Amino acid sequence: FCTLRSRLRCEVIESEENNKVLGIHRVLNECLIARGCLSAFHKFDFYVDGQLMTQYQADGLIIATPSGSSAYSMAAGGSLVAPNVPCILVTPIAPHGLSQRPLILPAGATIEVGIPTDSRTLPIASFDGATNIVLDRGSRVRITTS
């Protein structure tokens, strides 16, 4: 008996202008985009299938698979999802606003999280807690189901 689990493919892109891919990471649980060592919250431009959905103001965003829904995402207030449900979870960490709630998107969605060029600080991206990188202003992370 074998259970297939969905994974996420996360591309770190240098900027919207040159579209240069700086790295590709595959995760089983989650991609975390969060503030670094400074205590200021961040603004994150959030796109789904190329359309700007919102600008999150939060300590970070967790983009998780159903397998990852029982870890950091759940602790941050996200939904618990059965492993066989085809979806992507988006959970803001300590959002600064009443309308910024967790989302469950279809597995076929393409998510992009952009770092505004006027961002006060530089956030980090963490992939299953194993690889951490600093995201520059103007960069973005594109996330799809792998």
From TrEMBL:
- What GO molecular functions are on record for this protein? ATP binding; NAD+ kinase activity
Keyword NAD in the entry? The reply is yes
List the coiled-coil residues: none
GO:BP terms for this protein?
NAD+ metabolic process; NADP+ biosynthetic process
InterPro entries reported for this sequence: ATP-NAD_kinase_PpnK-typ_C, NAD/diacylglycerol_kinase_sf
- Enumerate the UniProt keywords alphabetically: ATP-binding, Kinase, NAD, NADP, Nucleotide-binding, Transferase
* Pfam annotation, one family: NAD_kinase_C
What SUPFAM superfamilies does the database record attribute to this sequence? NAD kinase/diacylglycerol kinase-like
Q: What is this protein called?
A: NAD(+) kinase
